[in-house]
Amino acid sequence: MEQYSNIYIVGIKGVAMANLAVIYKKLGKNVAGADVADEFITDKLLKDNNISYQIGFDPAKLPPETEMIIYSAAHGGIDNPVAIEGKKRKLIVISQAEAIGQLMSQSKVKIAVAGCHGKTTISSLLSYALIKLGAKPNYIVGTPFFTDYQGSNYLGGDYFVAEADEYGVNPPLDKTPKFHFLNPDYIICPNIDFDHPDVYVGIKETKAAFGKFFAGNSSSTIVQELFVCQDDKNLMDVVCRLPKEKYITFGFDIKSDYRIENVITDQKGSSFDLIDSRHVSLARMAFRIALFGLENVSDTVGVIVLLLKLGFSADQIQKSLVGFAGAKRRFELVYNGQVKLFDDYAHHPKEIETTIKAAKMRFPGKRIIVIFQPHTYSRTQALLPDFAESLSQADLAYILPIFPSARERSGQFSVSSNDIVKLNPNKLVNVSSKAELVKHLSSIILDQDILFTMGAGDVYKLKNAIIEACSRRV
Questions:
Q1: Is 274 helix (H, G, I), strand (E, B) or coil?
Q2: Are 177 and 145 in contact (CB under 8 A)?
Q3: Inter-residue contact 223 to 246 (CB < 8 Å)
Q4: HSE-up of residue 272 (Cα within 13 Å, Cβ side)
Q5: Using an 8 Å Cβ cutoff, are 41 and 329 in contact?
Q6: Whether the Cβ atoms of residue 5 and residue 30 lie closer than 8 Å to each other
Q7: Handedness of CA 406, 412, 418, 422 (dihedral sign)
Q8: Sign of CA pseudo-dihedral 397, 401, 407, 413
Q9: How far, in Å, CA of 39 to CA of 37, rounded?
């Protein structure tokens, strides 16, 4: 990859693709690309880094100096017209996963953050901490921004932090898990769950994919150590097949190598004690973070344990965590008035449940209202009862139409948002449009309510309409 100076990215507005573009730009490459005209959360990231792109995928507009093309599962993947043109010209055409793997391989210490939930928060926090520790990390995570930093950078230090995605390279043509192209030295993984029914048949196949990743994806690279959450049964089912010296556990479970105790939540965040049960002499280590919810505490501990392994002291680590306020679209406060509006990427029942629980811990006694946009027909159909159960933990939830994937044909599915609502009509409300949502909110919103937009689609774009509804409530 080092020998290529002119790189073209198909679907450059995707979060991982935009972050790839930033890294290449930092490395002195000439970066161009193409995408659709729609507004994306990465628009600012690309603008801030002076990365231009074309609208549409016209192969005739592929710059003649292009040497390498990178594609993802979006916009037709390998069958995108630009990718096809690249093959005709005998250019290097590789997937996003391969590109990240090649970048990662250039660093001395390679760290991957895997898991079906929480990996963006963990990888962002780890990158943030390494920056504060003066380690000058190279990193690429699943968000355009976190706290004071962009979602990727190449600072030239020894460490490379990558969010390790279990999704397929280019479904349905290529369902190879993307993280199988990474060869990390260390892996943090908080959980394994069944997601992506367009890639995996069920939890058994998902576990097998993680198991292969944990064992090492090539004969030339051996995973030195795993840092895993003892509390997650699916994860431990996979990890327990490995020699115990290959992994370190953390969590609330009494059997954890690093055990979490005494979690206290206030309006500024969470404090907790961490006990190294393997070394009695270390006793308790006290930490404080500006995050909320037990899962965020546990995810933070995954970062702490890895940093301890890398040789940083507990005192250094505690100081490095100060100031981290989370990643964009992860419990992100977007409006703070008589009511508060948060935006969250939660798109799986487990993530929805986790976010609602964290909200209740942060705002005890307050009414929690969720505006949820299901993402993909396949996920909605496969996890229908779980969506109804998790959303019902809010005081009230409005369910928007399903945000489809370009890789799915709606005619292949017989599921709709209303199917979720039917499972608990007392708490769940189907809304078919923005106007209908605004009408509902205007009539029911009360002072001190806590609102969330949730989903992996474009539900965050409703921010202004929701704020307007809150301001003119009757």
A1: strand
A2: no
A3: yes
A4: 26
A5: yes
A6: yes
A7: negative
A8: positive
A9: 7
Band (27; pLDDT cuts 50, 70, 90): very high
Average pLDDT over residues 51-63: 94
List, as one string, the DSSP characters of 185-250: SEEEE-------TTT-SSHHHHHHHHHHHHH-SBTTB---EEEEETT-HHHHHHHTTS-GGGEEEE
| All residues at 6 or more sequence positions from 260 whose CB lies less than 8 Å from its CB, including other chains | 250, 251, 252, 272, 273, 274, 297, 298, 301
Alpha-carbon span 296 to 147, nearest angstrom: 15
Phi and psi dihedrals of 336, rounded to 5? -130, 95
pLDDT of residue 433: 87
Domains of the chain and any CATH numbers: 6-95 (3.40.50.720), 105-321 (3.40.1190.10), 332-471 (3.90.190.20)
In which element (H, E) is residue 68 found? Answer: strand 68-71
CB neighbour class for 125 (10 Å; exposed up to 12, middle 13-18, buried from 19): buried
Band (pLDDT 50/70/90 cuts) for residue 474 is: very low
